[in-house]
Structure to design on (177 residues):
């Protein structure tokens, strides 16, 4: 089977967070189509597990989907920033806890059919409380949640973020076996 070929791309919108392009794509049978491409910075996600086998989660509302849910701290990586350092930075800013050494857990592309958004999920054993979260507006509360509850929370739709579901289910699997 042949690959789709992007022959050209033009930007139709851009800001510091996102660039939306239109691509002229040639299909294997020679037909052409316009395809939207959303280009985003890579995302770093942080999961920290404490000695009680709990993970620190953020409870927040997402106005785009109109839903409340548990999420892992995350954010875009800066230009040239190490993704593991970005994950640790986001964790500290959003929770008020400084994580231990970050290790890559997994990498996912949540929407590869339309977006370059590449998510790297990092995890650490333990964190040190350093104070009130700098970015406390990012969530209404922060709680240590037992990893054993993760499948139930996913099933109930309380964890909806693709990278959070993937990372937390992987941690649950690793810690439950």
């Amino acid at each position: 089977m042949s690959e789709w070929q992007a022959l050209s791309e033009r930007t139709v919108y851009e800001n510091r967070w996102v660039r939306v392009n239109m691509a002229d794509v040639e299909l294997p049978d020679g037909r052409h189509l316009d395809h939207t491409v959303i280009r985003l910075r890579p995302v770093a996600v942080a999961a920290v597990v404490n000695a009680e086998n709990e993970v620190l989660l953020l409870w927040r509302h997402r106005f785009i989907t109109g839903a409340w849910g548990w999420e892992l701290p995350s954010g875009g990586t800066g230009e040239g920033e190490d993704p593991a350092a970005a994950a640790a930075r986001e964790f500290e800013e959003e929770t008020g806890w400084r994580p231990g050494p970050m290790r890559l857990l997994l990498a996912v592309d949540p929407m590869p059919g339309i977006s370059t958004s590449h998510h790297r999920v990092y995890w650490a054993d333990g964190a040190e409380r350093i104070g009130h979260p700098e970015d406390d507006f990012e969530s209404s509360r922060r709680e240590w949640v037992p990893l054993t509850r993760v499948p139930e929370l996913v099933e109930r739709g309380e964890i909806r973020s693709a990278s959070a579901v993937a990372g937390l289910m992987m941690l649950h699997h690793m810690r439950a076996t």
